[in-house]
UniProtKB/TrEMBL annotation:
PANTHER family registered for this protein in UniProt: DUAL-SPECIFICITY PHOSPHATASE 11 (RNA_RNP COMPLEX 1-INTERACTING), MRNA-CAPPING ENZYME
Protein's organism: Scophthalmus maximus (Turbot)
Quaternary state and interactors: Monomer. May interact with SFRS7 and SFRS9/SRP30C.
Record-given protein name: RNA/RNP complex-1-interacting phosphatase
Positions of region (Disordered): 171-305
Length: 305
C-alpha cells in the first residue's frame, strides 16, 4: 500500500553519486534527492544523504547553497520542515521520462531569475534535483543555459555531464536540447512562487548505537515540555552567520558559533568539532556506488519519483 511505498528508497538512488560539482561559470549545482531521516535511517551510514549531509559536502568544497529547486513528482522524500533554516525551497512538480512542458520550463526559469536577482551581491548557489539529479535536472539546467545564457547546446550538455559526474541518460531529453527549438523567455522576469524557507534549526540526531558521542553534540538543550522553541540567545549558534559583503566563505571560527558545542570532556579531548565521518571523504560523493553489474533500462512505468 501507500505506507510501504512512502518508506522506500527511490529506485536506483544508490547507483548515483550524491552531489556533482558546481557547473563552472554558473550558479548551478546538481544532486540526487536528499532523503529525510525516516527514509535514510534504513541505509548504512556511508550511504546516508540528506539535507544536512548536502550542506556538509558543499561547505567542504567552499560553496554555499541558498536555494533548492525540487523537481520530483512527489512530496514523500522530504519536506521544507526537513531543510535547514539557511535554505530556501521551490517545488516544481515535473513528470519523469517526458520532455518537460513549456509551463514547467518557464516556472524553472522564473525560479532561477528570482534567485539571481535576490542574490546578485553574493556567490551562493541554486541547487537542482530530481530523483537522481540527472535527467529532469540536467534537461532544465541545460535548457536555461541554452535559452537564457545563449550557451551552445552541445557545450551545455557537456558541461552538465562533466560537472554531475554522470551523463544525461534519456535520449529524448538530449535530442531536444541539441536539436529542439529554444523555448521562449517571455515572462521569466515575473515572480511565480515565493520561495519557502527551511524550518529545521538543528540536524536530527542519529538513532544508531555506535554514535553516542555524536548524538550528544547534535542534541539541543532540553526545553520545558519538550517543545522545540529555543530562546533567541541559543538561536545564534544554530544558524549560519550572514557574512558581510556577500562572501560565501565561513572561516572555521565562525562555523563553530552555530554548531552545537560538544560536552566539555569531549572538547578537551578532540576540539569543538567532531572528526569528519568516512562517508564525507571525497570518494563518497564523487563516485557512484557499484551496485549492479548490468545496465538498467529506463522502462520505469511509475511517475512517483
Amino acid at each position: 500500500g501507500g505506507e510501504k511505498m512512502s518508506r522506500k528508497i527511490p529506485d536506483r538512488w544508490l547507483d548515483y553519486a550524491a552531489v556533482g560539482k558546481r557547473l563552472d561559470g554558473t550558479r548551478f549545482i546538481a544532486f540526487k534527492v536528499p532523503l529525510k531521516q525516516s527514509l535514510s535511517r534504513q541505509l548504512p551510514r556511508a550511504d546516508v544523504f540528506g539535507p544536512w549531509e548536502l550542506l556538509d559536502v558543499l561547505r567542504r568544497d567552499d560553496q554555499e547553497l541558498r536555494l533548492i529547486v525540487d523537481l520530483t513528482f512527489t512530496t514523500r522524500y522530504y519536506s521544507v520542515q526537513d531543510l535547514p533554516s539557511s535554505l530556501q525551497f521551490v517545488k516544481i512538480f515535473t513528470k519523469g521520462h517526458e520532455v518537460p512542458s513549456d509551463a514547467t520550463i518557464l516556472s524553472f526559469k522564473r525560479a532561477v531569475r528570482r534567485f539571481l536577482k535576490d542574490n546578485a551581491d553574493n556567490d551562493t548557489l541554486v541547487g537542482v534535483h530530481c530523483t537522481h539529479g540527472l535527467n529532469r535536472t540536467g534537461y532544465l539546467i541545460c535548457r536555461y543555459l541554452i535559452d537564457v545564457d545563449g550557451m551552445d547546446p552541445h557545450a551545455a550538455v557537456k558541461l552538465f555531464n562533466s560537472s554531475r559526474g554522470h551523463d544525461i541518460e534519456r535520449q529524448n531529453y538530449v535530442d531536444d536540447l541539441r536539436c529542439g527549438p529554444r523555448r521562449s523567455n517571455v515572462g521569466m522576469e515575473e515572480s511565480e512562487q515565493e520561495p519557502q524557507t527551511g524550518s529545521a534549526t538543528r540536524r536530527p540526531s542519529d538513532g544508531s548505537d555506535d554514535c553516542g558521542s555524536e548524538r550528544q553534540w547534535r542534541s539541543p538543550p532540553q526545553s520545558e515540555g519538550g517543545r522545540s522553541r529555543y530562546p533567541t540567545v541559543e538561536r545564534q549558534w544554530r544558524r549560519p552567520p550572514h557574512s558581510e559583503g556577500g562572501g560565501s566563505r565561513y572561516p572555521p571560527g565562525e562555523l563553530r558559533q552555530w554548531r552545537t558545542p560538544a560536552p566539555r570532556s569531549q572538547q578537551d579531548r578532540r576540539g569543538p568539532l567532531p572528526p569528519p565521518q568516512p562517508r564525507y571523504s571525497p570518494r563518497w560523493w564523487a563516485e557512484p556506488k557499484p551496485r549492479h553489474t548490468h545496465r538498467h533500462t529506463h522502462g520505469l512505468k511509475r511517475y512517483d519519483h
